[in-house]
Amino acid sequence: MCIRDRYQRRVHGNKEVKEGEEAEKLPPPQPKIELPPPPPPPKIFLTPAIIGRCVSQIGKTPNGLSYVYTKLLAEGQDIEIIGEAIETYKNLRSVSLAKNQISKFHEITTLPYLITFNGSQNQAEEIDFVGDKEKLQFLQTVDLSQNKIKALPQINLINLVSLNLIDNQINSALHFTGHATLKILDLKKNKLANFEGIQNMPQLQELYAAENELASIDGLKNLPCLKKLHIRKNPLVKFSSIPDLPALEYLNLRETQIDSMEEVKKFSPLKDLKTLNLLATPVVETMAANMKKETLMLLDMLKLKKINKEEVTAEEVKEAADEKKEKQRQEEEAKKEAERLAKEKEEAEAKEREEALAKQKEEEAAKAREEAEAKAKLEAEEKDKKEAEEKAKKGVEKKEEEEAEAEGEPEEEESQSLTFYIY
Questions:
Q1: Over 90: is that where the pLDDT of 307 sits?
Q2: How far, CA to CA in Å, does 132 sit from each of 52, 105, 135, 156, 353?
Q3: Beta-carbon count within 10 A of 303 CB
Q4: pTM value?
Q5: Cα–Cα distance, 256 to 210 (Å, whole number)
Q6: Which position among 83, 184, 383, 423 has the lowest Cβ density within 10 Å, counted as fewest Cβ atoms?
Q7: In angstroms, rounded to a whole number, what is the distance separating the alpha carbons of residues 92 and 138?
Q8: pLDDT digit string (tens) for 310-328?
């Protein structure tokens, strides 16, 4: 069978038809109907049902006359709005609404006896509830980590002790003017470029600001009780100054960009410093095994107990002190030698200057003599010339006189002869 005698088949949908057969007609395309978007799902509130299954820990009311639930643990419930239902549980002391979708927490201000609040892993951008000094007067611990907070506001919670703001988007603390009772402030994993506003906290003991964008530590003021400063993994290179932190015992600068021992030396005013961590910094990579000893020598006025996570032994302190003493002795000798050489050089230069000055004076005197001789010679020549001119002038005058006399004598003779003839 040749090819042209074969049946040519065409596929129409799922049906095969031979050439010449009439294909089944398809229905015309239907116009596309655009359906309206589905309505947004309703907001999920903290309902009485959720609260009912999440409360626990029975305790007495403040007046001691009855028993109530004191703890609410409503984590991971996809709650978006706290709502009014929580107001029924005014005696709650501990509330955790972590791992939800809440954007505002102002409803917790209706819980007058609240002591601990956890609002971590939510969607809050502002925390206005911390500014009301008349409410939440017993609140001591607040965890708002892993939200979307952009600035640290003024906090008026009068008994607050611990504030956790890890992993937010805070880039400014200018409106935070201090706090009277706060002891722990955690600002790790934010976007702070400086510490402006972090001040006036007489009770603050621990400040964490690792993994920010700090290029300086300027701005820390009036923190007399601060013992622990953790600023790891920031782009710190140099310190224009070291804040006055009289109680500081622990300083973590790990994974910063400090690159010289001159910067390490600037920590000397921190009289109570006992632990210093500079691991994974350029200066440690440069100094290598000598880092510990060099630090002990530079900061021998401090009582360091641990450097880069290594304990400091009494033997290491003594060895560093002895080496520093020897180094100072060598430096003193080198200084004296340098002074001696400088003095010799100065004397030699002074002698050279004196000789040069004497030579200059001699040359000036010789030049003066030459000028005087030249002047005297010129004056003598002028005098001789003048005398010659005077002599020549007198000679001319004399000659003229002689000529005049010579011309006058014949006339007199002639006059005499005439006179003779007349007589």
A1: yes
A2: 28, 13, 6, 6, 80
A3: 13
A4: 0.74
A5: 10
A6: 423
A7: 11
A8: 999 999 999 999 999 998 8
